[in-house]
Please model this.
Amino acid sequence: MLRKPGRDPGRMPSTASSLALPSGSVLELSSARAEWLAAGAELDVGCAPVNERGARALARAAVEARGAHAGRATECTLALGAGLVVVRLLRLPQLKRAELALVLERKAAAWLDAPVGDVLYQASEMGALDADEPSGERTWLVTAARRGELVALRQELRRAGFAPRRIVPAQLAALDCARAAL
Model:
């Protein structure tokens, strides 16, 4: 477990370790590791591997990464990384709202290899991919996660003493922090 800031040349930097937060905490979880970053009077950084699959294993790794803060409810932003959330750009023709919702939900289910009823997704229209494109196609930023896994993860994290205020995709966490600072 890493308890002090530093660079491991064999490891790519993650969103949690590269965010500059004025205050607050970020717990970044991926299928491979948990990272904790608490910004306050002192910077506290921790990292722990995820050795098994499932919500309970993710929560155990989160507790290990959090280290010294164990035993008290800890508010944080939960940033979901690789293996837990999918972030994609999707180009679609203009569709009616109901039809668009069906297409987005089916795409999200296909990306996650999950039943349509077991996906949560969010889509933001990014506009036309190419301003000179007369086709009318629009580009959507879509994030998706498995509903059952996310519910189980939130329950296990709460049992472990975490209180996620927001859940964001790790790839977009920096944007979330910038928006919160406005």
The beta strands are 24-29, 33-39, 44-49, 74-80, 86-92, 119-127, 138-146, 162-169. The chain has five helices and eight strands. Confidence is low (pLDDT under 50) at residues 1-22.
